[in-house]
Write a structure and sequence with these properties.
Layout lengths: L1 E14 L2 E14 L3 E5 L6 H8 L7 E6 L2 E2 L5 H11 E4 L11 H11 L4 H14 L15 H13 L5 E5 L7 H18 L2 E5 L3 H4 L4 E6 L2 E7 L8
Parallel strand pairs: 3-8, 3-9, 6-7, 7-8
Antiparallel strand pairs: 1-2, 1-4, 4-5, 9-10
């Protein structure tokens, strides 16, 4: 099943009389269960493409389809509904709510989705076990390491059983051991749950985990290659 499709997508930013062509006709198809890295230098269009796929922005032209739905011309509320139903996000700076515990941060999307207390409790317990942090359920973010915070962020992204998880530089603020832990968790969850991961990175430590690598340069895809076997394990 095709989870993401972009067709001739462009994104032009205008500031005064200055135009910046962030994307210049991007065609991309992501199938269910893929573990794909978007790579390229700063300014290549990686984050812009993630924002369009994540319904956080709209293309200047072209079409974006997510989980079988054309999201190109949806209004703000409709795009928010797509995000709530189908997309999980993992951000560079974790974006956890500092006053909530790990448990409560993971629970938040389930609360917003109207799940019952028993459903929430069962799902959060399962997720804490998946990220190997069942003993940190009642810890606030400032009581967790950076790697632990990012693993909580991954669990929160998975809470609603999304079709797609988008991660923008998920290890950029982590040292090598913590970055490896986060990528190990993401890889394992991809294999065990089948959720599709699309992540933007310039970190070689992260790229080696990908099973497909899409390279952007100056707003265009210049290379798209499958990796037969991950360098850190199939």
């Amino acid at each position: 099943m095709e989870v993401v499709k972009t067709e001739n997508v462009t994104r032009i930013y205008r500031v005064g009389d200055v135009e910046t062509n962030a994307l210049r006709g991007v065609n991309l198809s992501i199938q269910s269960g893929e573990f794909t890295a978007l790579i390229g230098p700063s300014g290549s269009g990686k984050t812009t493409l993630l924002q369009l796929i994540g319904c956080l922005d709209m293309p200047t032209s072209g079409r974006v389809t997510v989980n079988g739905k054309d999201v190109t011309n949806l209004n703000r509320n409709q795009r928010a509904d797509i995000r709530a139903e189908s997309i999980g996000f993992v951000f560079q700076f974790f974006a956890l709510i500092p006053t909530l515990t790990a448990y409560e941060n993971i629970e938040m999307p389930l609360l917003l989705a109207g799940k019952s207390s028993s459903e929430r409790a069962e799902r959060v317990k399962q997720l804490l076990e998946w990220i190997d942090l069942p003993d940190r359920a009642n810890y606030r973010p400032d009581q967790l390491s950076g790697g632990q915070q990012q693993r909580v962020a991954v669990a929160r992204a998975l809470a609603i059983n999304p079709a797609l998880i988008l991660a923008d530089e998920p290890t950029a603020n982590l040292d090598t051991p913590n970055g490896r832990q986060v990528m190990d968790v993401m890889t394992r969850l991809n294999k065990e749950t089948g959720v599709t991961f699309l992540f933007a990175t310039h970190d070689p430590r992260v790229i080696q985990y990908a099973r497909r690598v899409v390279t952007l340069q100056d707003g265009l895809i210049i290379k798209d290659e499958l990796v037969e076997k991950s360098a850190v394990g199939a």
